[in-house]
Amino acid sequence: MSTQFVKYENNPVMGSSELGTCFDVYVTRANGRYRMDFSWRPKRSLAVTFSDDGIHWEAPQITLPNTEESGWEHHVNRNCVLKIDGTYKMWYTGQQNDKSYIGYAESEDGICFHRVQAEPIMVADRPWEQPSVMNPCVLFENGVYKMWYAAGENYEPNVLAYAESEDGIHWNKYGTDPVFAADPKNIYEQNRVGGCQVIKTPDMGYVMFYIGYETIDKAQICVAHSPNGITDWEKSPFNPIVTPTPDQWDADACYKPSILWNEETQQWMLWYNGRKRYDEYIGYVYKKGRELF
Q: Is residue 8 part of a domain?
């Protein structure tokens, strides 16, 4: 059985010189359609696009614009969107003055989001978080919101941490240390780890797809799993699962993954942002069969 993800031959699937940099996606599927929430750098905003097959995407629409008024959202990016009890809920990153924060917004139609409060819902207040918290990934389980987020340096974060909430707004951070860090023995993540998506599975526990940084400029996609999503993380022997392709559009780095399991086709579907020099677009890879570890 193949353990490798295969890159779609006509990548990238989203982004162009006209649209500009598109990055850090979060893909969901409902009613047979795919929804991609992503960061739109030229607009300093968050946007959404839709697709019938996960490959061909519609023209994007801005869902949450930046604002100068709040003092922490000169740029907004790196979000996660869930639909819970008929309401679309968004956790996102606000950036200003070389710091990052996590904010929260809601929407009835999934397109036009409004901020629930003027202040961020999470700030960097632990020594290992300074000066930034970013890249929230949220699951809602048994009435509890669970968030995995990246923290550390503002250009590229260093570690992954965990928090819980009863309302999605007020968060209790777990422990006194991050829950996931780079292993310097693994060359593919010897520099740091960053933005992740965590899913809960019936056969592998909590599975985390994350960025491993070989250097600050070379990034690859990796995977690990844990019985509870907090401790005892086991990294896949097949890491890294998605790597840059020399001379191609993602020649320098493969960043923030978003993953779905397609039950009908029995394959993993994964979207990521690839970079070649200053250009950054969204690509798609897939893998037949469920084996990851």
A: no
